[in-house]
Design a protein that fits this description.
Pfam families: CN_hydrolase. This protein is an alpha/beta fold. It has helices spanning about 20-35, 60-65, 80-85, 145-150, 175-185, 210-225, 280, 290; strands at about 5-10, 40-45, 90-100, 105-115, 120-125, 160, 165-170, 190-195, 230-235, 235-240, 240-245, 250, 255-260, 265-275. The protein contains 8 helices and 14 strands. Strands 5-4-3-2-1-14 form a 6-stranded mixed beta sheet, with helices on both faces. It has a 6-stranded mixed beta sheet with strand order 6-7-8-9-12-13, with helices on one face. A hairpin with a 5-residue loop joins β12 (about 250) and β13 (about 255-260). α1 packs parallel to α3 and α5 (about 175-185) runs parallel beside α6 (about 210-225). The chain binds 4-methylsulfanyl-2-ureido-butyric acid.
């Protein structure tokens, strides 16, 4: 069988001045607790090492750079890698990345998957970047992901791990069916994602009460229509005056939420993942080879 216990490790708010060491210690604690309860894989949020800094305009480059990692692991994150390796637990981690490529300084909103031996087995750079590139003074808080990150240049990769095929995405990616479909077409059996989602959406405040619904709607639909497991992990709670949704959950290939957090702080949602259950969908209603009609989908590939 290809069964293992997984944990979605929700984090409560991280303050702007909270050191990496504190966030890492909180994640170590969750990881140890998850291991005690049998977990072999732990999924942490998007930008899990710092506060969600795109909510501010930061013009000083050194101040901005301080929110990014230039190496992974690095000295501050190593304790998390060490604890995980010692316990034999793998994990997904979101963080802001500075990479030097072809002599250029580049910034990405990144996630990695680490196996039980501490090796990075997958890396993803966020493709659907929400928000806006310039400061907008009418907003109660900024969402400057389009300023602080470049479009991810690694595609939607699927890689081997935990006895199956794994895929990753980040936050806003989950709202796009294309994310899950591309991962599904590539055979992903488990999609992991972290998110930071404000309750208040300044462009359409009439949707504020729907944020939890839209969060689950998109992840459950992605799981069902592609016959894959989804683990979605929030950074939740009131972070620097901005309320972030919780709703961290584990979703079966049927689209059912089978584990969910209750609050807005550091908390685990845990479930047994049986990767063979993907067949319930992929050999039936979503047997792609038998039932997909790609000739009629041409428009969704046009720019
Ligand atoms: N982090 C992230 O992608 N958040 C967005 C917020 C809404 S768009 C401003 C999300 O899709 O949840």
């Amino acid at each position: 069988t290809r069964k293992f216990i997984a944990a979605a490790a929700q984090l409560g708010p991280i303050a702007r001045d909270e050191p990496r060491a504190s966030a890492v210690a909180r994640m170590q604690k969750l990881l140890i607790d998850a291991h005690r309860r049998g977990a072999e894989l732990v999924v942490f949020p998007e930008l899990a090492l710092t506060t969600f800094f795109p909510r501010w305009l930061i013009e000083d480059e050194a101040e901005l750079d301080a929110f990014y990692e230039t190496e992974m692991p690095n000295a501050e994150v190593q304790p998390l890698f060490d604890t995980a390796r010692d316990l034999g637990v793998g994990f997904y981690l979101g963080y802001a990345e500075i990479a030097y490529e072809h002599g250029q300084k580049r910034r990405f909103n990144t996630s990695i998957t680490v196996d039980k031996t501490g090796q990075i087995i997958g890396k993803y750079r966020k493709i659907h970047l929400p928000g806006h590139p310039e400061y907008e003074d009418w907003r109660p808080f900024q969402h400057l992901e389009k300023r602080y990150f470049e479009h991810g240049n690694l595609g939607f990769g699927v890689f081997d791990g935990f006895g199956g095929k794994l895929g990753m995405c980040l936050c806003n990616d989950r709202r796009w069916p294309e994310t899950f479909r591309v991962l599904g077409l590539r055979g992903a059996e488990l999609v992991m994602l972290g998110y930071n989602t404000p309750v208040h959406y300044p462009l359409a405040p009439e949707h504020d009460h729907l944020q939890d619904f839209h969060n689950h709607l998109s992840m459950q639909a992605g799981a069902y229509a592609n016959g894959c497991w989804v683990i979605g992990t929030a950074k939740a709670g009131r972070e620097e005056g901005c309320d972030l949704i919780g709703g961290t959950c584990i979703i079966a290939p049927t689209g059912e939420i089978i584990a969910k957090t209750q609050g807005f702080g550091d908390e685990l949602a845990m479930a047994e993942i049986d990767l063979d259950r993907c067949r319930e969908l992929r050999e039936n209603v979503f047997n792609f080879a038998l039932h997909r009609e790609p000739d009629d989908y041409r428009d969704i590939c046009a720019g």
